[in-house]
């Protein structure tokens, strides 16, 4: 059985032209919806379509972007269809037809190219990170407080000031103050004050 799937991204759009094309392509049942294609999550009609499939069925769309918006999503969906022994045809891309030997070959080639491209991107990113590290670039979120400020915060907290008061003065969130107190310098100052040893501000 040939199932059609039509999708538009917003309520102001109309999928009537897609439905007509799918009917002309011989689709016996069509699932249509108005839903963003950024993710397969929340696409109820698409979920119904996948549940309705039986071995030997074929899913038909007018264009690939009606089914998926990224090569990864497309690969995952096609893999799921393969597991269900169901075929896939895109009317807008003649090479995309997993019901034929040539179509399956083309999909394999396209999948290999996409994986190769992802590998190149990962490699370039890793090389860029290594070069940046060699130049001394620091990664991660920049700290809002320097070591001297953290020691002073720990000293004042141990002396009785609250995290809320310190957060207002240093113009940071209380979570930042908490992390400062949990840092090595902060903990040492709190413990030192608790033990009654005089503090000196090294900052």
Can you tell me about this structure?
With 203 residues, this protein is α/β, with parallel strands linked by helices. It folds into 2 domains: 100 residues, 3-Layer(aba) Sandwich (Rossmann fold); 48 residues. The protein is 54% helix and 10% strand. It has 9 helices and 4 strands, in the order βαβαβααβααααα. Strands 2-1-3-4 form a 4-stranded parallel β-sheet, sandwiched between helices. Helix 1 links the parallel strand 1 and strand 2. Helix 6 runs parallel beside helix 9 and helix 7 packs across helix 8. The N and C termini lie far apart (76 Å). The C terminus is likely disordered.
Main beta sheet: strand number and arrangement? 4 strands, parallel
Terminus-to-terminus distance? 76 Å
Mean pLDDT: 81
CATH names the topology of the largest domain as Rossmann fold
- The CATH level-2 architecture of the largest domain is identified as 3-Layer(aba) Sandwich
| Basic shape | elongated
What is the CATH class designation of the largest domain?
Alpha Beta
Query: Order of SSEs, N→C?
Result: EHEHEHHEHHHHH
**How many β-strand runs?**
4
Low-confidence stretches: 196-203
Domain module count: 2
CATH superfamily of the largest domain: Resolvase, N-terminal catalytic domain
Strand content: 5-15%
Biggest sheet, spatial arrangement of strands = 2-1-3-4
The structural class is: alpha/beta
Helix content: 40-55%
What Rg is obtained from the alpha carbons, in whole angstroms? 29 Å
Number of helices: 9
């Amino acid at each position: 059985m040939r199932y059609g799937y039509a999708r538009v991204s917003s309520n102001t759009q109309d999928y009537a032209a897609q439905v007509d094309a799918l009917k002309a392509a011989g689709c016996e049942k069509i699932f249509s919806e108005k839903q963003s294609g950024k993710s397969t999550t929340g696409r109820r009609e698409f979920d119904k379509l996948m549940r309705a499939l039986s071995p030997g069925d074929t899913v038909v769309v007018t264009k690939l972007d009606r089914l998926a918006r990224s090569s990864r999503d497309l690969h995952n969906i096609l893999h799921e269809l393969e597991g269900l022994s169901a075929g896939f045809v895109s009317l807008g891309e003649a090479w995309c037809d997993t019901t034929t030997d040539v179509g399956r070959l083309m999909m394999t080639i396209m999948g290999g190219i996409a994986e190769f491209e992802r590998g190149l991107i990962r490699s370039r990113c890793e090389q860029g990170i290594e070069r940046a590290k060699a130049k001394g670039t620091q990664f991660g979120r920049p700290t809002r407080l320097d070591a001297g400020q953290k020691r002073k915060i720990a000293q004042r907290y141990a002396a009785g000031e609250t995290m809320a008061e310190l957060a207002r003065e240093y113009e940071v969130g209380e979570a930042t103050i908490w992390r400062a107190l949990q840092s090595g310098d902060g903990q040492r100052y709190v413990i030192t004050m608790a033990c009654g040893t005089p503090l000196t501000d090294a900052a």
